[in-house]
Design goal:
Layout lengths: L5 E4 L1 H8 L11 H8 L3 E7 L4 E8 L5 E6 L13 H10 L2 E7 L18 E2 L8 E6 L4 H7 L2 H12 L3 E4 L3 H15 L6 H11 L5 E8 L2 E11 L2 E9 L8 H15 L4 E3 L8 H7 L8 H7 L5 E4 L4 E4 L2 H15 L1
Parallel strand pairs: 4-5, 11-12
Antiparallel strand pairs: 1-2, 2-3, 3-4, 5-14, 6-14, 7-12, 7-13, 8-9, 9-10, 10-11
Helix pairs in contact: 2-7, 5-8, 6-7
Length: about 325
């Protein structure tokens, strides 16, 4: 889209706009907007010549809403100020108490972090996990293995030697059942079968999603949903049975997901979510802690990726007293 200002835009126009951003985050796609719209959110697409954003709205209380830009806006951040007036107008029209922005930017390893734009506040509450591990998929598969921890390489080969098979599947019912087992075992929140089915139906026809299932002698032991767009892939959803975990099905699943991602042209594989602590703290405590995301950090660290933290989140407040009430409510709910 290069005809100046045009906002809001239709979903079809948003697809056209995204064609100029082949590496835009999965959470800024039309398909993601449609997925969230089916489960309690409303999607609005805003586009200008050099920037744009998918903005999601969710009802809060008293007829008010939360506005949210997940992993956006698009374009270079120096162009974002031109977008904010249109964002503000849409947010006020939707009765938004505030707008939460979680940019698709990493904090620098060295140097100062990107400051919130004028009119935004730093926020302690994120919707997506701020910290993750990103695996480098450059080089050949032997290079990937060499970057992994020795125990992870061993577990991948052990699963292969013990006869586990990993294959693409369309069996979302089995996946949802395994997700419930995982939720009960590890205390994770999971989505409904309808949610996973809708995600698969939206992204799989575009070649941007695969459901992989690990089986032993025909028995499903684990499954995951991997997503890809441009040079990046994301491991968003995973589940496993309580049975035969000694055969290491989850390790082989991740290996095959990385191989699938590379076949789609991806050069990075985002393992999506570890505790929001610096690396020395994570490495000092992962053997002792199992709460929250600590258990998955022990697993994910073995794949040899780089620990990264996203910039933000930032909040833009429209109704200050309701925003204060919302922050109190969040603190009370998480206490």
């Amino acid at each position: 889209m290069n005809d100046g200002v045009s906002m809001p835009v239709s979903p079809e126009a948003w697809d056209e706009f995204l064609s100029d951003y082949p590496d835009a985050h999965l959470l800024q796609t039309r398909a993601w907007g449609e997925l969230k719209s089916a489960f309690g959110w409303r999607a609005v697409y805003l586009a200008q010549e050099k920037t744009g954003a998918l903005v999601l709205f969710r009802q809060l209380f008293f007829g008010k809403s939360l506005a949210y830009i997940p992993r956006g806006p698009l374009g270079e951040h120096q162009h974002w100020p031109a977008l904010w007036p249109a964002v503000d107008a849409v947010c006020r029209g939707q009765g938004a108490v505030f707008l939460k922005v979680e940019p698709d930017l990493w904090e620098p390893v060295l140097g100062s972090a990107l400051a919130p734009p004028t009119g935004f506040l730093p926020s302690a509450h994120s919707i997506q996990p701020p910290r993750t591990i990103v695996v480098d998929l450059s080089g050949d598969e032997q290079a990937w293995l060499q970057r992994m921890k020795q125990k992870t390489r061993y577990n991948i080969r052990l699963a292969q030697k013990r006869g586990l098979q990993v294959h693409p599947s369309q069996d979302l019912e089995t996946y949802a059942r395994l997700a419930q087992v995982t939720a009960q075992r590890d205390g994770f929140g999971v989505h409904s079968l309808a949610y996973y089915q809708r995600a698969y139906d939206l992204f799989h026809p575009q070649g941007q999603c695969e459901l992989l299932q690990a089986e032993y002698q025909g028995e499903p032991l684990a499954a995951l949903m991997v997503f890809a767009r441009g040079r990046r892939a994301w491991y968003l959803y995973g589940a496993s049975s309580d049975q035969q975990r000694e055969k290491m099905p989850t390790y082989l699943l991740q290996w095959e997901a990385m191989r699938w991602a590379r076949q789609q042209g991806c050069l990075e594989y985002d393992l999506w979510g570890v505790p929001d602590e610096d690396e020395p703290t994570l490495e000092a405590a992962f053997d002792q802690r199992r709460d929250g995301l600590w258990g998955v950090y022990r697993f994910k660290r073995g794949f040899g990726g780089e620990l990264r933290r996203s910039v933000g989140p930032w909040d833009r407040v429209y109704q200050p007293w309701l925003y204060r009430f919302y922050r109190w409510w969040i603190r009370r709910r998480s206490a």
